[in-house]
Task: structure prediction
Amino acid sequence: MKFIVTMFVMLAACLEPLFAQSTALNAKDIELSWTVAEYRYKNKNEARCVVDLKNKGQVPMPATGWKIYFNISSVRNLDTADKALTVKHINGDLFCMQPGKNFAQIDPGKSMITQVITGAQKNQSDLPEGFYIVFDNKPSKGFAIKVNNILEVEHTQDEIKLAEKIFQQNKLSKNLPLSALPPVLPTPLKYAWLKGTFSLSQSVSIAGKNVFGAEADYLSAELKGLLTPSAATKAAGKTKSIVLNKKPDMAPEAYELVVTPDRITISASNSAGIFHGMQSLKMLLPPASWSKKQKTINVPCVSITDAPRFSHRAFMMDVARNFQQKSYILKVIDLLALYKFNVLHMHLNDDEGWRLQIPGLPELTTVGSTRGHSIDERDRLLPSYGSGPDATNAAGTGYYTREDFVDILRYAKTRHIMVIPEIETPGHARAAIKSMTSRYHRLMKEGNKLEAEKYL
Result:
């Protein structure tokens, strides 16, 4: 008898986890619908939204023991006396909804509806993102849930009339003939179309490497991707050629580009001007040139004289809030060069992320460059901008190693673009603060109090 009782106890112990698992709520069974019912609630720049929480599983959704997190600019309960589902601000754009005193469990196949007030919800980009649920018995883990965002906006008569007016105006727009368009963008100071075309092929040489060697190598590499086989860099001879000509009296970054049937001449006083002339030459090539390699490309004959109106032509890129891989940065640099920008301003840190490796301060990137659900932010920052519970989200997590950033600087320099790395402080420095707090705890644990407090 004792043996039978012992076996029964052992069997029950084995089955307990399986039973608990079968009766536990699965995050995949939760579905949330967020509907914008009124986008100008009480004629204010606020929206009334309906939140429909559905249980599509086989077990009840309990009245306690969970929280749903999400990112939005602002949100609050419609009625402060509503104790069913309460909204709480966590940090920045991170909020959570949790069951209140009057919340009853949601049975399988049933739903619970509540209403909230948010900031403007007029466009898809205004809607909340990054919903995930956290169970009290697993506080360090977040599980993404399915969400349906529904934008049901009834526009005012004035808005409808304005939209109709703009629509009618746009109907009057007509495509300009090719002859009416400028040959390159931005529109040059002066240009004139000439007769004929220049046949760009493998036999075309590039002259001027003794003066503009780096630019000649750049152009040769660009042509290599277009022609079969590639153009060679050598002195000008009797064959057709591209000539890089130094003209000392021209203003910095100014250039002249003249395309005739026999020769392409790019003139400038410095290498930046020569490079800008090359970008204009690239713009003259037919679009089909970039789809696959060709034996010959016909370049229209033209005379262009151009110089920048502004000496500082910059593009600011915020990689702190939404990270971008190095490969994408290099692609952006190519596009900036094509449109003759000369500055890339990189916003490398903010409350939501630190993106540059600093030797000696590893927490800046191990903690400050990682976003995901966290209890105390010792290992990562809280989610923002819909980055969700997992640190695998590419927009929320990532940083540039020292080698990455050197590559970016060199790539930009070759294209005559200066990179301005921005380290923002003292404001918007939460990522750095949380990183240094994590560093403090690590070094205190190691018994190094002096070093721990150094950057705290």
